């Protein structure tokens, strides 16, 4: 086989991998956890179809078990009328009429009274004939030999699919564990390559790419040799990953028209890893991807090489067929043996027969297989029929008198049709339950929303912008209830996408939604002088950390310094709050800082670079030549800088003064260039970076006006306008960033708040805003703050910039915020398992919340976005004073300030889409906590500093853990799709949606539910149901008025 | 006549290849109770035959060595066979054969009859109990073949708990008599013959590991099952407790003597 592929062939393989990878959702590293829809790659399909496809690809379930829905129904959370309507709709589609059978009664009974997961499961040998016989109490008729063989081949065609992975089929027939071993070896290889600093020893030659690096290592891997894998020969002549993949597919004799499906199944087997590699290969700015490139082609090549060598080993060991053709021939030649094998090794065999079949297969005597298989098939047929009959009889008893006799009187083909209808309903039932639950919550929301009333507007004491996050809702409600506070909801990055370089941190983080790439860079600089020396405690901590992470030092250091670690261990466990406060005191406090918000002109940029280079030269002189600042003049430094940059040549004045030899001077200049980065190339790079620094005045005006107008605030500004970002505070929690701000790319929202406040407080910006009709009074001050969602504390920032006259009101403001914190904690802590009595003790509740934030054993420090349900886009008047139980994203919006609908477009295409991702991440993590969620936190281990695995090796766990979704074995998060309510005229909303194809596809595909509350149509609510808007009967002013009149 | 007695005893206290007959007898006994009874009675009959039909036939030194090798081979062979067994009664029968064959070492050392009988019970009792538990599991699942439908720990916590503890008792886990019985065997053999015993312990460890993996772990995916009642659980737990207590007393007496 020629392994050298043409460019066309290589592109063909790549394109197949690309297509196969499309359904796999990208997985962002845990440090910047991005809530995503696990079925993101299937969003082009309608929701129920995507759920089915997801089940096929990822083996995940898209709906809860029936018993959970029945529980919700008992709690009154399901709209019975809607449920029955969906059932009737289903029956109309079936158009099946059987004598004496009341399908509606049968299906309703199944749905509402049967606790078991599936009543009518698919089975190999069940048919109308055997079922009718069993119902009538007759023995199961035997299958004719020809019919049996024909059906056997059909069953085997399904179980040992010709387009399925070869190793999978071998596992099914021979009980080998090739699939598991392959996963294990592949995960190990991935961990070696993708490690981001967790391992003390790194894999060699990673910069060559995943496949090339792995190839180098694999040929000398002792473990592979011990497993009997002969990789050298296979890898010796492999050139590119594409050619390796094609070569192996040919070697395994996979028909070319099956390649696409084959590749898809290979990639989806460990979809967490595949998703991470997908993310990496498309993240241009991801440092680790830049350093150590890898893509799905590399990954697939590694997987296929390992898979092939394991198959070859199995051929040697078990004598099983070594390619797809031989395997299908094996099945064709001995279908009886193949069936018995698959029954035993897949685990579907009747337990009573398992040992007998096991013994027969162990004897390897083919002659007996046919007789044994026939006996077994008859036994299984009888067993399946009896089991089903028991179920149907019990069900008939619940349906009502006459149901059983009607069933018994059906002809065999009618019984088969009856069972098919039941089976089809059980597949469709989950979606019906889901819609009926949503219908309940839609009605609930329609009843809850308040219609605006005309009141004279008083100037509030303070206004606060919170993130639209559901966790902002309770604290907004409590803050408003305390007094003259007005709150607004806006995406937590305040509409200002920034790259942020934090003081003391070496790399830039993007604080904006994951779908955006910020153009502007904000640098945090200290407002105080920097100390040269590192504080003693910090230095000690570094030393201890280095000892811990080194390979050999723990062996010798554990006795010497191990006790020191126990102090932290005991402190964190026994008195977490005290420990962290003490620990915090020992660290140097972060200095007061400022943000560089304004754009720099070329002169300013050059000046900054010159200043930095001068500082570096001073440092170099001190370190390399032992010269302190007082011994060198500005001119000498300037001259050295010019020489290093190549603008001057010849001996410098300083070298002359110090009598340095030309070699010593050249060495020093080289060091300036290579170590201290004072060179021409670095200067031009820095200039490029500096060009990204800050925002121009136009940009600042644009962002501030957008933030204000999109939320409906253009007048009646209060004295304080708080911009409240949010963050969480947890210990020992790999999912920490999942609790931070999603709109800030899983980061913290404070820098964005500081940026927009800095902009909004600038007189020049305000003057330009006034020209746009936004009159911000002179005494209004924008103040950044951060809402800690774990403790509910709101901390004000940049108070040193606050004008003196505002200080008079600061205490009142802080008192109000503290009170809101306590009230929110009192509402929230009982839901986290604390005593209900805390609801009446706000101070104690707030103290407990603080403990949760510091407790490293706490698996559920806060509920995060669990139970999210609504997304309300409109004025706060709709929900003010309404207890939404922290379940609603609240985006402030006033369509009257948005004549062209641009703000609405932005809201629909960013916050609403992100809300949908968050909602569906929670939805699927609840419906299937093992496949879409990430299982229990208790077994999680951090993998390579970018993800978590269950145990020491597994697929990367991409969803949310069970502790975030379930409480005492029951779902805490109620899995329903996001119900988005938009306050605007219906035509206006439809026009905006029409301009956004992606959003339109999501809405029409049923990935979220939409309600439009039309202020120009009596505030009636239009609910989108199956592609059509329907007026909700309980909506509108007139309806409310009629209710009032009726009650009066 | 002595040879015939010896051969019959080698069937009842299984030594390869006559152990095949012992296994066949146990496997064909009717029902779980019958199999349990067979495991309790057959080895005791073997001891009675050996001790009550006259003096044991003295073997030449070479013969003794070959005999010892056969005993140790049988123990290791059945332990190894049990590794791949997934049906509880088969696993129990094979593991019991592996342990029971060691009785010959006590017999050869001239151990008193009552001590040898107790030694045999250290293997027979847990094996017999496992037969009963296998029967209870078969009533619920249709068979006692493990690893087909995922772990049973969450579905049948009581029954799988009893099976776990009993299986541990059968592979000489400390506290149970099997462990102290093994100490006696270690005591009997010279240092150069200990390695097969160490190998045996290792294989038992492997075997119980696989057994418990199939029994307990993994998500159960079969039909709903009804666990055993509180009374059966209490009786089972009580028997196992008494069995462990007996082991402790026995070991105390043995060490004391």
Detailed description of the structure:
The complex is a heterodimer of chains A (1048) and B (257). Chain A is of the alpha/beta class and 1048 residues long. Among the domains of chain A are: 536-590, no CATH class; 600-692, no CATH class. Chain A is built from 43 helices and 19 strands. In chain A, the strands form five sheets. Chain A has a six-stranded mixed beta sheet, sandwiched between helices. In chain A, strands 2-1-7-8-9 form a five-stranded mixed beta sheet. Chain B is mainly alpha-helical and 257 residues long. Chain B has one domain. Chain B is built from eleven helices and no strands. Chain B has helices spanning 2-12, 19-28, 31-52, 61-83, 88-100, 103-108, 113-141, 157-170, 177-188, 194-216, 230-256. The radius of gyration of chain B is 18 Å and the shape is globular. Chain B starts with a helix and ends with a helix.
Main β sheet profile of chain A: 6 strands, mixed
Structural class label of chain A: alpha/beta
End-to-end C-alpha gap of chain B = 35 Å
User: DSSP strand (E) fraction of chain A?
Assistant: 5-15%
Q: Work out the number of β strands of chain A.
A: 19
Mean pLDDT of chain A equals 90
Uncertain residue ranges of chain A: none
Largest sheet of chain B: none
Low-confidence stretches of chain B: none
Number of strands of chain B: 0
The total count of helices of chain A amounts to: 43
The radius of gyration computed from the alpha-carbon positions of chain A, rounded to a whole number of angstroms, is 34 Å
Beta-strand content bin of chain B: under 5%
End-to-end distance of chain A: 89 Å
Strand order of the largest sheet of chain A: 11-10-16-17-18-19
Radius of gyration of chain B: 18 Å
Overall form of chain B: globular
Count of spatially separate domains of chain B: 1
Largest interface, C-beta within 8 A: A-B, 14 and 16 residues
